[in-house]
Automatic annotation (TrEMBL):
This is GTP cyclohydrolase 1 type 2 homolog. Homohexamer. SUPFAM superfamilies: NIF3 (NGG1p interacting factor 3)-like. The lineage of its organism: Bacteria, Bacillati, Actinomycetota, Actinomycetes, Pseudonocardiales. InterPro entries: DUF34/NIF3 (IPR002678), DUF34/NIF3_bac (IPR017221), DUF34/NIF3_sf (IPR036069), N-reg_PII/ATP_PRibTrfase_C (IPR015867). Keywords: Metal-binding. It comes from Allokutzneria oryzae. Gene3D superfamilies: 3.30.70.120, NIF3 (NGG1p interacting factor 3)-like (3.40.1390.30). Pfam families: DUF34_NIF3 (PF01784). Belongs to the GTP cyclohydrolase I type 2/NIF3 family. Coiled coil: none annotated.
Length: 379
């Protein structure tokens, strides 16, 4: 049985969480009925006339695009508007449109991972890592007989979840002691007498966003009138998510050979591949950023990269970068579309892994780079 559009979106948003998107972005479902079945998907970089026509020709139920169709706010999508006409064509054909943009850029794996893989880089990590989710550490002491119930309550409230795991906890048995004072109402022990009780120490972690719910669950499930617990904020660590990637080639090679590697790895465009650097410089460590990446020049430099591959490098930022000396990363500038096209196969793999043969997934090979002609002195 084919999955519904809602089920396909759930799989995509597990891979490319919407929370990773930049605040200015416009991602998600543009048109389509979440209840309708999805039997065929077309994956592309740009939702433009060419790819929408391709989706209609294929009979695709869903177009999964990287770039948003409606990035800036609109008040309508009339059929005589270029973008509105695409929406109308998709709806008439029964095709949904879903866009995963900057959330796919920062995902793990994401757009830059696909570019790094295409170039053969190994041992990659984010060029500009996003901070990990804020976490707390919780320690609580519970009468041994009640420890399973308290641990279950903590887990139900969201504790013990991290990096794809749940029910995470550490326990050890020991002896607790306390003296109930006048006015207390102890569950165990007597007022004015020192009481010793076999207890279990439970240690776990929790997303900071679940702090209130976890503490409420602890107090509700704990048998003591005043539970003893410690709650600490953990130090923030960088995550595996973020923009760009930096990794290494299996073996060093001259910059001229590396530029040829880039050209061979990506689809051909009129723009081609431009490079700035000493052709004989040996390249081992490489930074990449799918899409426009001159804002990441400083991060590429800090990464210790010998070369930086991205798209849409502007004249002045590139010139100022190179003017800082020969130790700066050499630059490779490719077409925006070409730098992000490897992601299409990655995204197709997400759908195939989730639904197997119940969904036919096609990767568009239509060149939607806007530049169509290049002329040089040698032509």
């Amino acid at each position: 049985m084919s999955p519904t559009l809602a089920e396909v979106i759930t799989a995509l948003e597990r891979a490319y969480p919407p929370a990773l998107a930049e605040s200015w972005d416009a991602i998600g479902l543009v048109c389509g009925d979440r209840a309708e079945p999805v039997r065929s998907v077309l994956v592309c970089v740009d939702p433009v006339e060419s790819t929408v026509d391709e989706a209609v020709e294929l009979g695709a139920d869903l177009v999964l695009a990287h770039h948003p169709l409606l990035l800036r706010g609109v008040h309508g999508v009339p059929a005589d508007d270029p973008k509105g006409s695409l929406v109308h064509k998709l709806i008439r054909a029964g095709s949904a449109l879903y866009c995963a943009h900057t959330n796919a850029d920062s995902a793990d794996p994401g757009v830059s991972d696909a570019l790094a893989d295409a170039l053969g880089l190994i041992g990659t990590s984010p060029l500009d890592a996003k901070p990990g989710e804020p976490m707390d550490a919780l320690t609580v002491f519970v009468p041994a007989a009640h420890a399973p119930r308290v641990l279950d309550a903590l887990t139900e409230a969201g504790a013990g979840r991290f990096d794809g795991y749940s029910h995470g906890a550490w326990t050890v048995d020991g002896t607790g002691q306390f003296m109930p004072l006048e006015g207390s109402n102890p569950v165990l022990g007597s007022v004015g007498e020192l009481h010793k009780e076999p207890e279990t120490r439970i240690e776990t972690v929790l997303p900071r966003s679940r702090r209130t719910a976890v503490v409420e669950a602890l107090r509700s499930a704990h048998p003591y009138e005043v539970p003893a617990f410690d709650l600490h904020e953990m130090a923030a660590l960088p995550s595996t998510k973020g923009l760009g990637r930096v990794g290494e080639l299996p073996e060093p090679e001259p910059f001229s050979a590396f530029v040829r590697r880039v050209a061979d790895a990506l689809p051909a465009t009129a723009w081609g591949v431009r490079a700035a650097g000493d052709p004989e410089r040996m390249i081992k460590r490489v930074a990449v950023c799918g899409g426009a990446g001159d804002s990441m020049l400083a991060a590429a430099t800090r990464s210790g990269a010998d070369a930086y591959v991205t798209a849409d490098l502007r004249h002045h930022p590139a010139d100022e970068h190179l003017a800082k000396g020969p130790r700066m990363p050499a630059l490779v500038d490719v077409s925006h579309w070409a730098s992000e096209w490897p992601w299409c196969e990655q995204a197709a793999g997400v759908i195939r892994a989730a639904f197997g043969g119940t969904v036919a997934v096609h990767v568009s090979t239509r060149r939607t780079d806007p530049w169509t002609l290049a002329v040089s002195d040698s032509d």
